Amino acid sequence: MFTVEQALKSVNSYFHLQNFIIENSYLFSDTAFKVVLNLLTRLDYGLNNAYAVMSYTEMQENTMKHRGAIQNAIAELEKKGLLR
């Protein structure tokens, strides 16, 4: 169970990340930007680790990009240290 302080810290971290990505959108390719925004909708702070899960099929439907483009975008985001 989260304390109020822990919950606020998680929300604050989420918004800092979201703001960083939006303010620096020029650093990402079109597909990488769409991928990261979709993953943000799934962000969860369970076990004090931020993680997001989305299938390739769902990502393709949400971004209107093909699987290869999504894989390249994920590689780009991993290189920039935003995904593991």
Instruction: Please tally the helical runs, counting DSSP H or I stretches of 4 or more residues.
Output: 4
Largest sheet: none
Beta strand %: under 5%
Helix content: 55-70%
Uncertain spans? none
For the terminal residues, how far apart are their CA atoms? 26 Å
What's a concise summary of this model?
It contains four helices and no strands.
Description:
By secondary structure, the protein is an all-alpha fold. Helices cover about 60% and strands about 0% of the residues. It contains 4 helices and no strands. It has helices spanning about 5-25, 30-40, 55-65, 65-80. α2 (about 30-40) crosses α4 (about 65-80). It is globular. The two termini are about 25 Å apart. The model has no long low-confidence stretch (mean pLDDT about 80).
Question: What's the topology here?
Answer:
Elements: H1 4-23, H2 30-40, H3 56-63, H4 67-79
Helix pairs in contact: 2-4
Give the tags.
62% helix, single chain, 0% strand, 84 residues, 4 helices, globular, mainly alpha
